[in-house]
Every structure is written in structure tokens, then in C-alpha cells.
Design goal:
mainly alpha, globular
């Protein structure tokens, strides 16, 4: 018994040491990621110092500002998410709650995975041909939004589906046993429980929309004016940043480019924060209505 107890004690000690090492490795990795992110942000803000100002943000392009680009970027983000989010969530619900494992469903999953791996320039060419020319929208915010919404659909579908899978089956069974229909169970029980994952999908989609350049260049256009409607052309911050760095000659040109990059980062943070606030409010209202 004594020898067995010693063996058990040694195994426990080895597992404890291994757990401690793995925990330290995870902490070190997380610290490294945060440090890299912090370095990038600090470097951008330091390089933008002296050029980033309120007047720079709200001036027109002719005056050296970026206000039209900010408006165009916000339009493209909001419209793309508005188009892709309902379709993505509905598709994820169908795949997780209603579909089985038939050949057709496996083919559908393969199509979604294929969409996720297609280069963005291909989406740009598709949008240019279909939305700009065949549908007659021309280079406009609407064409860009439709193109980008197709591009971010796989992200929304897969992330939402994984969050739906994480909801325990006991939630569904409890709701159904109380007399709720399957649709009521999904809307009032499953979706609120999966909301953090859906928020994650929205944030990832926003990040991809804001960071894309090739599809936006081909479908939205290069106009520096503030678009008066979604049927007009515009220039997003990423496209403007590309042209600023491409045409930069003296240090001041690079300073303006870094100031634009800083505004782009701040804009992403603001949009993500607003998304979380709106989603938290929506989840609270759903919880009160149950």
C-alpha cells in the first residue's frame, strides 16, 4: 500500500508540475500577444503624433482631411453587416438545429468552407462583374456591401454555428417540455445563450470588412467626395491609406498616412464597442421577455 501511495503521490506531483508549466506557457504566450499588439498601437500613435487632430478628421479630402473616407467606411461596414448577419445567422440555425448529415448538407458545408478560402481579389472581380455591371449598380457603396457581405458570410456562419453547438441540449429540452415550439425555443432560449459567439462573429466580420482593400477598390471606387447615397462611389480608409503610402515622398506624407491608420484603428474599436453594447441591450431585453 505504501509503494502504491508513493506512486500516486509522484503522479500527482508530475501532473501538478506539468499543469504549472503549461499555465506559465499560456501566460507567456498571452503576454507576448498583448505586447505585440501594444507595440503596434504605440508605434502607430507615436508616428501619427503631430498630424492626428480634430481638424484632420473632419476636413474634406481637398483640405487634406479624411472625413469623406470615414463616412464611406462606416456606410460600407453597416450595410455589409446588415446584409450578411441575418443570412449568416439563419444559415447557422438551419445547419445546427434543422439539418441532418445528408450528402446535400455535407456539400453545403464544403461550399461554405470553400467560400472562406477564396482570395479577396476573386470576390472583387465577382462583385465588379455581377453587381457593378450585370445588376447595373456601378462602382458604389451598395456594390461593395453586397460583395463584402458574401465574403464575410463564412465567418458569420461558422462562428455562429459553433456558438449554437455550445448551448446545452438541456436548455432546448427544458423549453420544449414547457410547451414552447421549436422556433420559440431557438429564438428565446438558444439564440440569447449563443449571443456572445454571435457578437464574436460580428466583430470578426467588421474587422475583415474594414481591412479589405482589393474588393473595395474594384466595387466601391476611388471618389473622395462624401457619398450622398448608397448608389454613389466613395473611398474607404484602407484604400485612402494605400494611396497615401504609395504616393508618399517626404516624412510629412508618411505622418499623414500613420494618422489615417490611427483613425482606422480607433474606428474599429468604436464600432466593436457599439456592437457589444447593442448586443448586450438586445440580450437583456430578450431575457426580460422570456
Amino acid at each position: 500500500m505504501t509503494g502504491t501511495a508513493k506512486q500516486i503521490t509522484m503522479r500527482i506531483k508530475k501532473r501538478t508540475v506539468m499543469d504549472s508549466l503549461l499555465y506559465a506557457l499560456m501566460v507567456l504566450t498571452m503576454t507576448g500577444v498583448i505586447a505585440v499588439l501594444g507595440f503596434i498601437l504605440v508605434y502607430i500613435l507615436q508616428s501619427a503624433a503631430g498630424f492626428l487632430s480634430i481638424s484632420f478628421i473632419f476636413r474634406s479630402a481637398e483640405e487634406g482631411g479624411i472625413f469623406p473616407m470615414i463616412i464611406t467606411t462606416v456606410y460600407v461596414v453597416i450595410l455589409s453587416i446588415a446584409i450578411a448577419l441575418p443570412v449568416g445567422i439563419a444559415s447557422a440555425i438551419f445547419l445546427n438545429e434543422y439539418s441532418g448529415n445528408s450528402s446535400l448538407i455535407r456539400l453545403l458545408r464544403l461550399a461554405i468552407e470553400t467560400l472562406a478560402g477564396i482570395p479577396s481579389i476573386i470576390y472583387g472581380l465577382f462583385g465588379l462583374l455581377v453587381f457593378c455591371r450585370i445588376f447595373g449598380f456601378g462602382q458604389s457603396i451598395l456594390s461593395g456591401a453586397f460583395t463584402l457581405s458574401i465574403m464575410i458570410l463564412p465567418v458569420i456562419i461558422r462562428t455562429t454555428e459553433e456558438s449554437l453547438k455550445s448551448v446545452p441540449d438541456s436548455f432546448r429540452e427544458g423549453s420544449l417540455s414547457l410547451g414552447a415550439t421549436k422556433f420559440q425555443t431557438i429564438f428565446h432560449v438558444v439564440l440569447p445563450s449563443a449571443l456572445p459567439g454571435i457578437v464574436t462573429s460580428v466583430i470578426l466580420a467588421i474587422g475583415r470588412v474594414v481591412g479589405e482593400s482589393a474588393p473595395v477598390l474594384l466595387t466601391v471606387g476611388l471618389s473622395k467626395n462624401i457619398p450622398r447615397s448608397i448608389f454613389e462611389s466613395g473611398r474607404t480608409l484602407t484604400i485612402h491609406l494605400y494611396y497615401l503610402t504609395n504616393e508618399a515622398i517626404n516624412p510629412d506624407d508618411f505622418g499623414i498616412a500613420f494618422a489615417t491608420a490611427a483613425v482606422l484603428v480607433i474606428l474599429v474599436v468604436i464600432i466593436n464597442t457599439l456592437t457589444k453594447i447593442i448586443t448586450s441591450t438586445f440580450r437583456k431585453n430578450l431575457g426580460e421577455s422570456v
